[in-house]
């Protein structure tokens, strides 16, 4: 089997040396280059053609975010961001994920934690090497295909005729969510619940980012939040998000399900308990099987399930699991899912 060919991009000589040495010692990896800034990385990309790029978020000159954007426009390649845990670093990392980065790791606060970070990075590199990445879709194009982000949805209580859309995603999910919500009209007679596998500290930034780029009011869920038409509630990292029979949010620290917390299955199950056949499930890109049991429950109660087609998934794991379980009604590439949702649900006529 050919080794995974890695380009390391970091302005820190220490990080380049340490990551280069440790990754080169890892079976199945080959470090083919190191770049000290974005300009150097872009110059090396056409010749080296790496399988995976590790990208420092904060660099002088051409920073990690701008370098990522240029890579995704000219030579789409799986990128794993290397982020600080500051608020600024978190926001930038989330923005990178919505622009096409496959995954990220956080820089350790102390050098004694470097070994643990390298182990995590190696795992993320292996996953990224199997990811399917595509050219970055501009916000202008998304706007032309769907929602008018200048006009925010009007919030109202969920009525008996309204629907609830339960969306689950993991690896590659932030970018998929950006495209989906950015093209989905906020006038739909529906409330949205989103579970994106992401650690604590990052989901609030993701909610803020999605809120800025869509007609939906997107917020990180808190205890007591209500499902509202025109609003999307995002499960916070480190917590399961559940709803009572009145559609009121409850956050729990119950054990992980499918090795994750938040888990799509936990949220979807509770939504189905409250809203039955009115739930529309959407399973987007991601590793593993999370979301399949929730999709099964949607089907048992008369609801419908959409799975993202393999052709647009960064990782065709979660959708594949649901499809193979026989609980999916519609399979569609990501750009077609907003129109499909609109057709299945309809709108209140105020588009």
Short descriptors:
351 residues, alpha/beta, Rossmann fold, 5-stranded parallel beta sheet, disordered C terminus
Describe the protein.
The protein contains 12 helices and 16 strands. With 351 residues, it is an alpha/beta fold. The protein folds into 2 domains: 4-129, Rossmann fold (3-Layer(aba) Sandwich); 144-345, 3-Layer(aba) Sandwich (Rossmann fold), CATH 3.40.50. It has a 7-stranded parallel beta sheet, with helices on both faces. Strand 4, helix 4 and strand 5 (103-106) form a beta-alpha-beta unit. It is elongated and about 60 Å long.
Give me a quick take on this structure.
The chain is an alpha/beta fold. The chain is built from twelve helices and 16 strands.
